[in-house]
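Below is one such record:
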Amino acid sequence: MTPDRCFSLLLALRSRPDTTVAALAEDTGVSERTVMRDLRWLQDAGFPVLARRGRYGGVSMLPGAALDTSRLTPPEREHLALTGLDEDQRRRLGVEAVSDRARRKVAGARSGDGLLAVGDLVVSDNRPWFGRDPGGVSPAALIGDLRRGVRLKVHYERTGRPPQWRTVDPYGLLAKGGRWYLVADEAGTPRLLNLLKIDRWEPLRTARRLRPDVRLADVAAELTSGWETAGDLEVHLRIQAYQVERAQRILGSRLTLGEPEPDGTTPGVLRCRVLEDVRQILAFADSATVTGPPEARDHLKALAQRIVDHYR
């Protein structure tokens, strides 16, 4: 059993004193047969899990039971808490690489049905293709002050503006798309600060002031979903069929496509935050045609003319 599924199963058992194998299978996203095998693993590992068969059967954990991490060293516990990061991201965060012995402590031995462990068959690499080595502030350098729970003054550079000192109340770090971000409140407003744009920072002596009952994961989800869905400017365009897949890959969720037309084009809507974002369409040359609004067409023509003038 993988560490992720182990923790998910234990959390489900602790949140509901009495449940069923079917409910646990739905919670953890695996089959009922897999849940039964996982429950036997927990019992063999010493967890007081009771599984009762029959009409009045069910699954429960005796009161007071909890995940016993006493068998793990502090670095191993830190490693398990950082689910989803690849080895390079853990290294940049300053977390010691977990040993094979530590993995066996949690994942257990090879299952009785002879199947290989999923953890031995999947490797995670969160770096973007052709991505450069990350610059800016190292997450490992910043994590010490974050763990102290103090406010920070960060020297932050925004595109087109000179760097400024900003005082923030940090929740923690977010690793997304091969980059690191500082998730923090600034004057009570959530912010996502790219570590590439922080050249230095100063820890303050005052404790961070976070909004009550708000967690790092909640703020990060709010900020990232807001960024991906934001954009009031809708640019309508038509894309040649042979470029549709490339457009989806480059523009991602910002592009909404319609049904292909008889003339070999596919209509679409590109959601932009500002008018300048239409420059992304230049990558498709004459295989993408902007049909509206007029200001988007005019701006795209002006950008194209600047390119022509530059190479004249």
Remarks:
- The two ends are 63 Å apart (CA to CA).
